[in-house]
Specification:
Elements: E1 6-8, E2 12-15, H1 21-30, E3 37-40, E4 46-50, H2 67-76, H3 80-90, E5 95-100, H4 106-119, H5 135-144, E6 150-153, H6 159-172, E7 178-185, H7 189-197, E8 218-219, E9 221-228, E10 239-248, H8 261-274, E11 283-285, H9 292-306, E12 312-314, H10 317-320, H11 327-341, E13 368-369, E14 383-390, E15 394-401
Parallel strand pairs: 4-8, 5-6, 5-7, 11-12, 11-14, 12-13
Antiparallel strand pairs: 1-9, 1-10, 2-9, 3-4, 7-9, 10-15, 14-15
């Protein structure tokens, strides 16, 4: 692969914490948890979840008008102008699509199979294609007439990090000149009940890195970028994907390696590829799910890699919910906005706040958690690291900066 930089467009996002990148930024810098509410699953059980209000979700133009496609399209529409400019510049056959997701069309699948088991036939609204992991990518190709490679990725919570990494690798390899990349996921009843069966759902709003943490609060949303081989003047900010790292724990189907070696590896690889030292990173958006094991191994890994640098860190999942396959791209969008909003500043720096009870687990290395109680940050924010450490030890770290 060549050493040319990869450029990121502005992000298009849609989630319970904000229907645009500005709205999401307002939520994360103010610690606004209004997007997290009690929901009732099909089982009758109640959970806290960051589900988008139904009245905010518009019908989609897709062949299958599913919730996941509706959410995906509302994020994509925010960057349609950049997509059209990219099409004109490179041609539709030189543009790819990479999407990370986990859930896809389970709400239609459940309804279809419920009718099938009752009456022996599927209803007319159901198609097996709805369940395909590929449709979230195929939809984008169809919507914009993109004829380059179209790929879908499903590595649990790191899915959209993998999508963005593969998008960058396709550009660097010369297969394409640009890629529409990101992720989308929904907080379906299937997902809620599945995570609950693992004992991973918190009965309160998630409380990451606290000694009182009890698990995840799930969410839903979408976030997309256009990655290009050169800076497009139509983009307001010259922000680059500087590097990335991936690793596999090879440890357990769901639990992370408690040593944090996989997370450590992905962060070190991302730094090496970026030609940066740990002291060069100005902010880390942690994976920070609020589970005992995931928070523990991530804190250990960050401490090993960054040591005494005391880089500012936070997890934003207590605001957005854990959006699963979309979480990496959504959190990269938050990092992108942190760079934009703090450009040229040496004081009055605003960073995403971590909402928690402030009672850090004494068994974990102490981190410089940004929660509004810290002293003011007096360092320009030029680089950000975003971590995604998924079930089964599918780890990915992304570095972006000017």
């Amino acid at each position: 692969m060549n050493n040319s930089p990869i450029f990121l467009s502005k992000p298009g996002i849609f989630c319970a914490a904000g229907e645009s990148i500005q709205a999401l930024w307002d939520s994360v810098v103010n610690g606004n948890q209004d997007g997290i509410k009690k929901v009732v699953a099909i089982s009758g059980e109640e959970f806290f979840a960051a589900r988008i209000d139904d009245n905010k979700i518009k019908n989609s133009s897709g062949r299958f008008d599913m919730r996941i496609i509706r959410i995906e399209e509302q994020a994509l529409n925010q960057i349609s102008d950049i997509i059209e400019i990219t099409k004109s510049k490179y041609g539709v056959d030189r543009i790819g699509v990479c999407v990370g997701s986990c859930d896809n069309g389970t709400e239609f699948s459940l309804a279809g199979h419920r009718e099938y088991f009752a009456d022996g036939v599927f209803n007319n609204d159901y198609s097996i294609e709805m369940q395909g992991a590929d449709y979230v990518a195929t939809f984008i190709s169809e919507k914009y007439g993109i004829t380059g490679p179209s790929c879908a990725f499903s590595t649990a919570c790191s899915s959209s990090a993998g999508a963005i990494i593969k998008a960058a690798e396709m550009i660097k390899a010369g297969f394409v000149d640009a890629v529409i990349a990101g992720g989308v996921d929904i907080a379906s009843d299937t997902t809620l009940l599945g995570f609950n069966s693992l004992g991973a759902i918190s009965d309160e709003k998630t409380n990451p890195f606290s000694q009182n943490r009890h698990g995840i609060t799930l969410g839903e949303g979408a976030a997309f970028f256009v990655l290009t081989k050169e800076f497009l003047s139509e983009n307001e900010n010259e922000i680059k994907l500087l590097g990335w790292g991936e690793s596999a724990d090879a440890y357990h189907m769901t639990s992370p390696d408690p040593s944090g070696k996989g997370a450590e590896s992905s962060m070190k690889k991302a730094l090496d590829m970026s030609f940066l030292h740990p002291s060069d990173i100005d902010y880390i958006n942690m994976h920070g799910t609020g589970t005992k094991f995931n928070d523990s191994m991530e804190a250990k890994a960050i401490n090993i890699v960054f040591g005494d640098n005391k880089v500012p860190v936070s997890t934003t999942k207590a605001i957005t919910g854990h959006t699963l396959g979309a979480s990496a791209s959504l959190e990269l969008a938050i990092c992108y906005e942190a760079l934009v909003k703090n450009k040229g500043k040496n004081n009055n720096i605003e960073l995403p706040l971590q909402v928690w009870d402030g009672e850090q687990d004494a068994n974990l290395p102490e981190l410089n958690i940004i929660d509004g109680r810290n002293k003011s940050i007096k360092k320009e924010i030029k680089t950000c690291l975003s971590n995604s450490f998924a079930f089964g030890g599918a780890n990915a770290s992304l570095v972006i900066g000017f």
